[in-house]
Design brief:
about 170 residues; globular; four-stranded antiparallel sheet; alpha+beta; 6 helices
Length: about 170
C-alpha cells in the first residue's frame, strides 16, 4: 500500500481550478504537523496561500506555481530547531523537508496533486509576505486536483539503479 503510494506520487504541474475542501486541506496540514523533527523541536511554520492576493504574491516569488488553488509556503523558525553539538549545524531545513514529504504523500492518498518547488526566491518571499526576522521560507508546495491532462514528466520515471544509491558496509 505505501509502496504503491510512493510510486504513484508525481510532481503535478497542471491543476484543475477545483478548490480543495477544507477537511482535505486540514488532513494534509496535519500530516506536516505530526512529522518527525530533530529532537522534536518542531521549527515548522506553514503559510497557506489561497486568496487571490496571496497566490499573486506567490507568483512573484516563483514561476512554478502552476495556477494551483493552494500554495503552501514551507518555512522554518530559526528560534527553534535542534543544533548538532558536533557540527553546530541546525536541522531546520531537514525538518521542513520531512514535513513537506509527509504532506505530499498525504495529498496523494487523498487524490490531491502536489509539486515540491525549490525554484523560488526566499528573500523576495520574506519581503512580499512581510515575514518576521526568525521565519525563513524553504520551499513552496503547490496543491490542487490534477487537471485531466496532468501527467508525470519523463524525469519522474528516471531513477538510478539501486547499486548506485546504496552501499552495504
Amino acid at each position: 500500500m505505501l509502496e504503491q503510494l510512493l510510486k504513484d506520487r508525481y510532481s503535478v504541474r497542471d491543476y484543475a481550478s477545483t478548490p480543495i475542501e477544507k477537511e482535505v486541506l486540514d488532513k494534509i496540514l496535519e500530516a506536516g504537523r505530526v512529522a518527525p523533527s530533530a529532537r522534536n523541536c518542531q521549527p515548522l511554520k506553514v503559510y497557506v496561500l489561497q486568496s487571490a492576493e496571496a497566490l499573486e504574491k506567490a507568483k512573484q516569488t516563483s514561476p512554478c506555481t502552476f495556477n494551483a488553488p493552494v500554495v503552501l509556503m514551507m518555512c522554518s523558525d530559526s528560534n527553534l530547531g535542534y543544533q548538532n553539538p558536533f557540527t553546530e549545524e541546525k536541522y531546520n531545513t531537514m525538518d521542513v523537508t520531512i514535513a513537506t514529504t509527509q504532506m505530499m504523500l498525504q495529498a496523494t492518498e487523498l487524490g490531491v496533486g502536489s509539486c515540491w518547488v525549490c525554484r523560488f526566491n526566499p528573500p523576495l518571499a520574506k519581503e512580499v509576505f512581510n515575514l518576521p526576522e526568525n521565519i525563513h521560507p524553504k520551499c513552496l508546495l503547490t496543491l490542487g486536483y490534477p487537471s485531466d491532462t496532468a501527467t508525470p514528466s519523463d524525469r519522474h520515471f528516471s531513477r538510478k539503479p539501486m547499486e548506485e544509491v546504496v552501499t552495504y558496509l
